[in-house]
Amino acid sequence: MSTIKKSVFKVIKSNIWTIILLVFVICGVVVLSLIPPQILKNIIDQSLVPKKFDKLLTFAFAYIGILFLIGVFNFFKEAIITILGLKITKEIRSEMIKKLERINAMFFSTNSSGTVVSRFTNDVDAINSLFTSGIVGMIVDCFKIIGIVISIWMFSSKLGIVTLLLLPAIYSITRAFQKRMLKAQIENRILVGKVNNHISESLKNVQMIKSYSKEDYMEENYTKYLLENYKTVEKVNFYDSVYSPIIQLIRAAVISFIVVLSSKQLNYLGISLGMVAASIELISNLFAPIESLGMELQNIQQAISGIKRVNDFFDEPEDDFKKNELRAENIIPKGEDVILSFNDITFQYEEGLDIIQNINLVLKQNEKVTFVGRTGVGKTTLFKLIMGLLKPTKGSITINGIDVYDIPNSEKRKIFGYVDQSFHIIKGTVGDQISLQDESITREQIEEVIDFVGLTEYVASLENGLDTMVDSDTLFSQGQKQLLAIARAIVTNPPILLLDEITANLDSIIEEKIVSVLQKTRDAHTILSISHRLSSMIASDTVVILEDGKVKNVGSPEVLLENDEWYRSHITLEKLTWS
Amino acid sequence: MSKMKIEPMKQPDKIVNYWKKEKFVVALIVIFGLSYNITIILGPIYQGKLIDSIAYGNSLSSVIILAITYTLLIGINQLLRYFKRFYIRRFANSTSATMRLMIYNNIMHKSISELDDENTGNLMTRAISDVDLCVEGMRKFTTEVFDTGVLMVTYIISMLVYDVKITILSIIFVPIAMVLAEKLKTVIYKYSKEYRQKSSELADITYDAIENSMIYRVNGMESKNSVKYIEELEDLQDKAIKANILENSMQPIYNVIAMLGIIIVIYLGGTKVINGGWTVGAFSTYVAMFTAMAFKASKAAKLFNSVQKSQVSWKRIKPYLEEYKIKDTSSNIDTSCTLLSVKNLSFSYEDGKGNIIENVNFTGSQGEIIGVTGSIASGKSTLGISLLGLYPYVGSIKIDGKELKDYSEYERSQMISYLGHKPQLLSDTIYNNITLGSKSDITSVLKDVCFDKDLEAMRNGQNTLVGNSGIKLSGGQQARIALARALNNKNKIIILDDPFSAVDMKTEEKIIENLKNNYNDSLIILISHRLAIFNRIDKIILLNDDKTVDYGTHNELIKKSELYSTIYNLQNTEGGNNDEHNKKVSI
């Protein structure tokens, strides 16, 4: 059973009494809304035609009383549907966030955050509306139609048959319109996309447009898209404007037909004056549920694609189970060495396309290693493998003999400190940026690490110091952000630091500052860094040159300078700051 | 039919002008809006007459005539309604198109530095959705002037005609319902505001959890975050329930209150029928009119909300609605020959900041290729940009003896082609990307940039769509299309900033040969850190780290500059491994 279904059933099970109440309320609404026309019939047949006053006031109060009850029942109906819908939404989202925890790390490199967020928001909302305005609405409407047909049938079976014949006719007209309208709307949505895309494209390329003086050309194209859009909107507008008048016209024709049939001379239907008036009322009420039935059907169709996307999300491959009993302090007991070894690892995203091939390396305690190579040779993938985020296709990476992939994520912060090339601001205060809202990290630890990276003074100058909310991207400069990233990585004092191109976006003065901070961590950490530059910021003991996913050469910088021509010439160019 | 043209307008910053602009459509809306909402009472009136015709046993023929009249009248009334609906929608449609055009024109005529200052991307998407909201509000307002205003007046007047006393007594509950709705609005507003806030907060949290998923995962925070997330969901659910129940479920209650007068209608109206003052038909007509009016009144609160919302949007887009601008395209440039002379040029992006380049001197004329090179951050690209005249500069840049800053922006764009690091491709065909609207044959220019082979592999040839930002092409192909665009505009001066970083060495050499042979009318300035081809070009400007400049031919620089000769030799030994697909990612 799919996770969505499970969530829905879970909500139904735990709210069984609410569901029963909902069924009751729906039946109430359907039955009650049939009563006002009956009262109208009685007013005419029992008071107006025989000219009797006595029951008139009773009827008047009964009429408003029923209207009041309908109002109350409708209130409860809406409320219960809303609550159930929201509970289902909550349940599905909870499942999704739990899924996100287990999902394979590759998912994030192939899906943009925007798309994933819209799985959580738009698609789940679509599922909600499928339930609330789709399925429940459909049931209510079907009941309403049945109720009206029965009411009319009780007046006259002939009129009942007429109504029954009417149903498919109205329904097919409605569907024909709705289908055309949907088609026009889809056409229009594509064009709206084009119109909007043209704006963002113009802005992206504004420098080029201006340098060729092509503002006119771009505007001309924009006007063209606007005009196309205008035309499709006209089409939508046509269907939109014409549908409801046609339905009203049909209604009038049906009323005329009934009146003629029940005229004195014909008296074909054999019903009283009150019944005629009530039938007119009932038939008028018939159109609304038929119309919404069509819309509901359409909504359900649209929501199904949302369900499919959410189901696909639930079907994404997950990480294997971790060995939850593993603890950081057991893997790396205090005072013991850390040996990180790559045992013939190969990794591929797709069958037959190796990103990393047969890498073998053993890193000793506190060793400083730099991985160099062109963009796209799998350096970052290698880091993800080291941290056990990805599972190698072949081979394994171990710390003191323990496979990193088996280590539960919750223990990793005590083992690895990871610094990315750009700092990701999270929602929260300055302190949260470092602790990531991990309660086990004390304020002292945060202050200590802020001091270590030399940001104490700056943080103190902020409005609320460590408790200042970081709500603007410009609160910290590029360099300060990178210092925060380092602070975030070392706050738990992990023995292994992984630095991924951390100075890629910085100028040389800030780079020096960062290097000087990192120098202080040298003595107690194994440091692995990735660089597209050969002369790493931290003097390394070992340089690993990667090419096409393989280790092309490995050795101390001095040795490589001697025996690797590519390394030698590249390092010279770099010293001349040429590349 | 429609005029099918989208045209600029005057004074777009006054909202009234949008109705004035669509005079014809607005006049039709008024005509159909009035006539529909006045003739609408014919429905209930004739429905009453039909009932009476049965009650009094009229002859079959008169019943049939009455029935046909009724159907026809409804037909006419609904036809008027169709026109009203259609023209109101057309008004919204053209208003939206005009607003969009005006905003677009405004943005495209802002200067580059103005655009740099604004966070345009975000702003724009908001402006777009604001146009929609604003127009939607304008449409609803226009509709409801008739469908609520005129309609309620029509109903009340005709009800008064039927019976003054009953009408006055029965409709007193309608304003009560409206006042109550208005009063409750503030409470509802409070709850729905809390809900919306929480909802956007949760959207932020969701985005945070996904965007920073790797950071959270590496630091083992995911499961703790999930627990918190579920708590937040719980909170959101509570707030949503409160807000939704109040917002959606109150309407039936308002409706009941507005309908309270039905007691009076039934009792007094019924009495009147029994006393012979009204027919049964008149009674049913009156009930139908009363019900319709009460229903309309109970919905009035919603209308005010949407108009308020659209006012907020209007305020946000208003700054972008300025007079329509047209670029001045008069030009006075010498197309016969080109002479560029740069003297003591210094340049910085902002006043007071240190110069990025200092004291640059060189001259060039048509048919020459001048190479510009230097280390990272030596100011190569800056030199290229300063020659565009987009920013103020110190010193002199003269083209054909006239100072660059004295030419108009349009003239500069007609003299200088510039190709920067980014290919800046549009999601259009190859042909349109190169010609940008000018109808010209691009076969030869495609050959010059060695694209002819690539084109053979494409089924649609020059009409191949390149995708968003050229995503369907490789990096090297994108660069060459952008180069073809610069060449096709064949200006006096063509500035190419590192156009070959994604192109392999052999192709690069071939293109340089083509440039030398086929673009004798232009002066080409080639900025690059790859020197392999520099031995084949006319002059070279070397920007040193200490802001000094070496200038001369390749051979002169080999002798004069140690840096230049070292780099040239190193790059030659390194060479070879620069094939195109490996470097796809590097731009």
Automatic annotation (TrEMBL), chain B:
InterPro entries membership: AAA+_ATPase, ABC1_TM_dom, ABC1_TM_sf, ABC_transporter-like_ATP-bd, ABC_transporter-like_CS, P-loop_NTPase, Type_1_exporter
Start and end residues of each ABC transporter domain: 340-570
Gene Ontology terms for molecular function: ABC-type oligopeptide transporter activity; ATP binding; ATP hydrolysis activity
Organism per entry: Paratissierella segnis
Principal cellular location given in the protein's record: membrane
Domain ABC transmembrane type-1: 27-309
GO cellular component, one term: plasma membrane
Keywords noted in UniProt: ATP-binding, Membrane, Nucleotide-binding, Transmembrane, Transmembrane helix
Membrane topology listed for this record: Multi-pass membrane protein
The name this protein goes by in its record: ABC transporter ATP-binding protein
One Pfam assignment: ABC_tran
Annotated compartments: Cell membrane
Membrane spanning stretches: 24-47, 59-80, 168-188, 252-270, 276-295
PROSITE patterns, per database record: ABC_TM1F (PS50929), ABC_TRANSPORTER_1 (PS00211), ABC_TRANSPORTER_2 (PS50893)
Record flagged with keyword S-adenosyl-L-methionine: no
Lineage of the species this protein comes from: Bacteria, Bacillati, Bacillota, Tissierellia, Tissierellales
